[in-house]
Amino acid sequence: MLRILVVHGPNLNLLGTREPSIYGADNLDQINQRLRTRAQAGGAELVAFQSNTEGILVDRLQEAGRDGTGFVIINPGAYTHTSVAMRDALSAVKIPFIEVHLSNVFARESFRHHSYFTDIAVGMVCGLGAKGYELALEYALQAGERS
Questions:
Q1: pTM metric for this prediction
Q2: What is the CA radius of gyration of the chain?
């Protein structure tokens, strides 16, 4: 059974109340529940994890390298633009991943245009709100069928 880890970075625990005009009205529990339901229907196990702390996120990514995780979907939040440590963890565990952003980071402040993850990711989905997670999950499920 394919095990998919969804990692949510800082401030994503505030979804639903944090700037809904940018990030949407869905809260993190709603998003995770939809993802779990779809993953289960696709014969996969989905584990969701959120932290506001960089070191805890690094620890979880390292754990994914040992716990049988076959695919990662990650929204690094603000760590997208700052975290070499998370990038190094993803490189080290060698698990394919998709980077997801709820907003179109390229239509926002210039500091948001650079990601430490995109060049090592399978792909990136941005600007499609919570639907971006679902699209990444569909890809992961299809990739799992091929392996």
A1: 0.92
A2: 14
